[in-house]
User: What shape does this take?
Amino acid sequence: SYRPISLLPAISKLFEKLLLNRLLAFINENNIIPPEQFGFRKGHSTIHQLLRLKNKILEHKAVSKSTAMALLDVEKAFDNVWHDGLIYKLCLLNTPVYLVKIIRSYLKDRTFRVSLNNVESGNCLIPAGVPQGS
Assistant: This one.
């Protein structure tokens, strides 16, 4: 099982960075990501989450409370992002319309080609997932 890598021109990478900065600003200003979410966030490592968990366990133990934990690991999560569902969620979160439109156009009708030994396949539609390596 292989995941395609997006090879983008420098100007496209710059555009992605600007888009990401705008999206992160919106997310942070509106407290969309709960403080308990540590995955894929700057300054929030596995170590931080483990320390948080350890402290919570010790806190509960001190007052004879039980502690329960649920762990979630979605296999190939980025390969399985449902485009229409992502756009729907962005709209529900009142994401600025211009950002939703850009993201929709970025994901819509994406294609890929396989190149092996100087032979290229035809274009194939990418129905789900988000680009990697861009």
